[in-house]
Amino acid sequence: MSGRDTPLERMPVVILAGGMGTRLREETERVPKPLVGIGERPIVWHIMKLFGHHGSKRFVLCLGFKSWLIKEYFLRYREQIADLTVRLGDPGPPAFHTNGEEDWEVTLAETGLETGTGGRIHRVRQYVDTDTFILTYGDGLGSVDIGALVDFHRSHGRIGTVTGVHPTSRYGEMKVADGVVTDFDEKPSTAEGYVSGGFFVFQREFFDYLDDDPELMFERAPLQQLARDGELAVFPHSGFWMGMDTFREFTELNRLWAAGDAPWKVWD
Fold it and tell me: What is the number of other CB atoms lying within 10 angstroms of the CB of residue 76?
């Protein structure tokens, strides 16, 4: 088993950012899903800010659908956020007066248009140069304590850790007595059972469970085998978590942000 002392700022955060986002077609016909906005910034920025708050500095984005738009966003990131002066008669570059707070190294990797999640992770293995790395999705937000997650992973000695969250039902849950509704909960959170909320931590050994099959989904055979081998621990997270899978969730995340009530905004 490889070492577990990789500091968080050295640990690559691999973000799956190549999917089609077909269930959010209202937005993804225009931009790839990781660039769908919450407020004035794309969701992938919110995810990276969460990790950055806890000390992460290195990111590896697995690109696919409309990959150039994501590359362009980061290539022009400084121009978008900085104060600058453009001298229209001068062919030279603009003068930048401010920089962003983010001291990030972002690797943008082409992993194929229709590649499965397992194939995408396998294709970025050369950019994972540490014993331990983090993996998450480019469309899931939560108030996850990344430092505590990594500490938990270091403590148990297994190859992988998955953050377990309680799912929120998409349907209203009714309590009924004698044919009459006695309580109605629009968004019940089930106390029983966890679902994967992303926010994984893995040792490099996890790459042995993957191959370059373009149809390989890492959530299927690789994670199932890891679990059967007793090598997958769960880090329970009872706080806020939401995947942006539908237009309803997109609307809710934007409502929380606009109201100044975004639980994932742990940064200043």
Answer: 10
